[in-house]
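To the wet lab folks,

You asked to see what we're planning to order before we commit. Fair enough. Below is the target structure as tokens, and below that is the sequence we designed to fit it. If anything looks off to you, flag it before the synthesis order goes out.
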């Protein structure tokens, strides 16, 4: 960001076929953000319903104080691509991400902006549709359920406690934006963004917001297919988008844990044990590199030498816990060593 920029806030709004909401959207933005130190960046994602023409008319009116940037993508490329484009063209110290469909309230966006600018320790706030005692309208149980399940999985994968990863209302300090590299072009951008923020050791605050769900007839874009794809993105950001040493550790630990699982149960029970131990191996591979992971494996092996039947299961479990504790301490011991990539 150029040092001479006087822009304090950049509001990035992706738009795709939202002609019925744009006039009201800008009326709300005018009430909350009509300041000379604010820029509103509208990225039209290949709309074919006349949205872009309406945006051009709004821009031509010039009855606003903020700087209005209008960017047009020739073909529909997805929400993620539109957000990436907006970020690249932003100058603000703070970046506010907001949808154009009025499901979320601009008054909440203003409140989040005031909070983050009044506390220098806060670098990132996510809106949450599930935390607030504010007004809500939502008749779609399945959509809400998928959102909550995805947030739960994200929390397990990244040791977080977020209630709403998918909320489209977010505000970030420029220092956060400069550390991340968004690559997902569709609705998976929310998971991509959250995972990169956590990986770069920024704390995500949450703020309860109002929510007015709209139907497909009103222009709702997200579908059940996007819900299924979100599970893929959760797997990708946790188990694929890692350093080579972490990916090697994940492969190593998941294989040996699946092998350990093969020694338990019979028939279907044996398959369930293999799957369960394989999942445990994936998680171990995230937390521990090759050497510390091998310590856990050795302890499991020693545990398998004791007892018979159910006694062996108990022995393996006890040795597994001791192996985890030892691996944690060894990892801490080498955390600042040049060989830490092995632990």
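Sequence we intend to order:
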């Amino acid at each position: 960001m150029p040092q001479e920029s006087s822009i304090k806030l950049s509001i990035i709004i992706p738009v795709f076929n939202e002609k019925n909401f744009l006039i009201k959207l800008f009326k709300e933005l005018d009430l909350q953000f009509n300041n000379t130190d604010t820029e509103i960046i509208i990225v039209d994602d290949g709309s074919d319903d006349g949205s872009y023409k309406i945006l051009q008319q709004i821009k031509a009116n010039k009855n606003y104080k903020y700087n209005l940037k209008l960017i047009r993508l020739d073909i529909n490329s997805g929400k993620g691509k539109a957000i990436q484009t907006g970020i690249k063209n932003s100058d603000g110290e703070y970046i506010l991400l907001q949808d154009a469909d009025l499901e979320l309230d601009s008054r909440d966006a203003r409140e989040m902006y005031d909070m983050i600018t009044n506390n220098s320790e806060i670098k990132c706030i996510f809106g949450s549709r599930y935390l607030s005692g504010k007004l809500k309208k939502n008749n779609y149980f399945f959509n809400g359920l998928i959102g909550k399940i995805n947030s739960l999985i994200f929390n397990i994968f990244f040791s977080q406690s977020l209630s709403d990863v998918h909320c489209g209302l977010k505000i970030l300090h420029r220092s956060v934006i400069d550390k991340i590299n968004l690559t997902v072009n569709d609705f998976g951008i929310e998971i991509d963004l959250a995972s990169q923020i956590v990986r770069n050791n920024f704390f995500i605050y949450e703020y309860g917001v109002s929510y007015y769900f709209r139907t497909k007839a009103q222009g709702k874009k997200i579908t059940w297919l996007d819900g299924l794809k979100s599970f893929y993105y959760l797997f990708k950001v946790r188990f694929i988008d890692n350093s080579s040493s972490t990916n090697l550790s994940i492969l190593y630990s998941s294989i040996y844990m699946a092998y350990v699982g093969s020694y338990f149960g019979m028939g279907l029970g044996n398959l369930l044990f293999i799957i369960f131990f394989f999942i445990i191996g994936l998680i171990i591979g995230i937390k521990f590199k090759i050497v510390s992971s091998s310590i856990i494996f050795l302890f499991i092996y020693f545990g398998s030498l004791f007892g018979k039947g159910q006694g062996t299961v108990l022995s393996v479990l006890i040795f597994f816990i001791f192996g985890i504790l030892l691996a944690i301490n060894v990892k801490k011991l080498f955390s600042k060593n040049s060989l830490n990539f092995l632990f």
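Structural context that might help your review: Strands lie at 9-15, 38-45, 67-73, 94-97, 124-128, 136-137, 170-173, 205-208, 211-212. The longest helix spans residues 310-333.

Thanks,
Computational group
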